[in-house]
Specification:
With 84 residues, the protein is mainly alpha-helical. It is built from 3 helices and no strands. It is elongated, with a radius of gyration of 15 Å.
């Protein structure tokens, strides 16, 4: 998922600058950090059984939040680049 975020950032840099380009870069950079945090929490959950239930819940919410943000940015990019 981090690769998808980096790809979106790269593709937005290739198209002519428009109103949404700076927002997409920043949102995808934050989304990359969310996916990294989700991955780290997932690894932590596998390695430590003591608090695994709590960490699993946090991991799930981080990953779902990252997917939601990725979907939102995808819709914004599609409407801004292709509707105009």
């Amino acid at each position: 998922m981090v690769g998808v975020c980096v790809t979106v950032i790269s593709l937005v840099q290739l198209v002519p600058k428009n109103n949404i380009s700076p927002w997409v870069d920043q949102l995808m950079a934050i989304d990359t950090l969310v996916f990294l945090a989700s991955t780290w929490m997932s690894y932590w959950t596998i390695r430590h059984d003591k608090y695994s239930d709590k960490y699993e819940l946090v991991t799930d919410w981080l990953f779902l939040g990252g997917l939601g943000a990725l979907g939102l940015v995808s819709v914004l990019v599609a409407f801004d680049l292709f509707i105009i």
